[in-house]
Recover the amino acids of this structure.
């Protein structure tokens, strides 16, 4: 329950390349309270929280139980941004806000090409973005009132999205009896 936390847990999700890490980094800089950015994919690799590596798809099969065990203490304390392309794995009680980033598929294709993804992986992700896979997953895993879909196609989008999340953090603090004055 968020009542036990002194700071919120924010999930930023979206198809790879939609801008999760870029948003999370800017949010860390602009947040009125300290937030730790957890790039879950990097964590999985660094901490070896996977069962296997799939050569064909160039991706890891995550050991979800171990991942959740690692994250649980951080989620209980709060003050974290969970940055991952999937959100259903996290327990519903962890999340205070779930941001789903969206991007035009042509633009997304270019971003993933620049990243050096294989054609197969670009196609898979592009199709997932068109089919709204990540959005559907977030909507079926969390209450509608905490899921926010935001466009991430330009620097203006990035800045206004982060400003909006900062406002949300300030409101969260007020609701939890914490002053926004320092
Ligand atoms: N809103 C945006 N406006 C312009 N470029 C963006 C935006 N969001 C992401 N990008 C660019 O797209 C690429 C992928 O962004 P990244 O944050 O790594 O995505 P993700 O973490 O979702 O995989 C980066 O080069 C980043 O600079």
């Amino acid at each position: 329950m968020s009542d036990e936390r002194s700071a919120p847990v924010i999930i930023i999700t979206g198809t790879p390349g939609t801008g999760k890490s870029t948003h999370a980094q800017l949010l860390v800089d602009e947040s009125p309270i300290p937030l730790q950015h957890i790039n879950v994919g990097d964590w999985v690799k660094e901490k070896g929280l996977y069962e296997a590596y799939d050569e064909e798809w160039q991706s890891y099969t995550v050991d979800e139980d171990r991942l959740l065990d690692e994250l649980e203490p951080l989620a209980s304390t709060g003050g974290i941004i969970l940055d991952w392309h999937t959100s259903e794995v996290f327990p519903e009680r962890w999340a205070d806000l779930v941001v789903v980033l969206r991007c035009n598929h042509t633009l997304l294709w270019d971003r993933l090409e620049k990243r050096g993804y294989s054609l197969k992986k670009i196609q898979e992700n592009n199709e997932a973005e068109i089919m709204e896979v990540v959005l559907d997953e977030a909507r079926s895993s969390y209450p509608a009132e905490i899921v926010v879909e935001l466009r991430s196609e330009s620097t203006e989008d990035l800045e206004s999205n982060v400003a909006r999340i900062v406002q949300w953090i300030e409101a969260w603090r007020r609701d939890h009896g914490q002053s926004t004055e320092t």
